[in-house]
Amino acid sequence: MDRVQQIFRGDRLIQDFGMNLIEGREGYAKVSVVVEDRFLNAHSIGHGVLLFAVADAAFALSVNAVVDAVGVQWSLNVFRAAKPGETVIGESRILHRGRQSMVCELTVTAGDGRVLARGQSTALPVSREAYAAGSGKKSG
């Protein structure tokens, strides 16, 4: 199984939210999710956490397709609301790939092309052994 598919299938939040992988390759990913009733806030619009989640899922896929990495910083500006029933698409593209950090551009759009949010995120490469040791689990 290729690396992006393995990460996509192994991420519980991605699966719990019912996200779909549109495209994933080294340094780039695009993920979608439908704004279901369970994702609405008190104003009956898509919750900001959903917009963040779809952007973060794309981010995780784009960087981990390159190397094992963890996110350490995010900045996301929301411009427009996601409407109930519409598809929301998160995209992540690596802008900088250094030895010690990677910086990504994040974009969240509605299915009709409206830009809902934009931002950036930073990931740090890390060995699987490093974070497996902290959880008490062995990698493998």
Furnish the topology, listing elements before pairings:
Layout: H1 3-10, H2 12-17, E1 20-25, E2 28-34, H3 48-64, E3 69-78, E4 87-97, E5 102-110, E6 115-125, H4 128-135
Antiparallel strand pairs: 1-2, 2-4, 3-6, 4-5, 5-6
Count of strand segments = 6
The coarse overall form would be: globular
Low-confidence stretches: none
The side-by-side strand order for the widest beta sheet comes to 1-2-4-5-6-3
Instruction: Please tell me how large the radius of gyration is.
Output: 15 Å
Kindly list the characteristics that best describe this protein.
alpha+beta; globular
Give an overview of the whole structure.
This protein has 140 residues and is an alpha+beta fold. The protein has four helices and six strands; from the N terminus they run H-H-E-E-H-E-E-E-E-H. The protein has a six-stranded antiparallel beta sheet with strand order 1-2-4-5-6-3. A hairpin with a 4-residue loop joins strand 5 (102-110) and strand 6 (115-125). It is globular, with a radius of gyration of 15 Å. It starts with a helix and ends in a 5-residue tail after the last helix.
Quick summary of this structure?
With 140 residues, this protein is of the alpha+beta class.
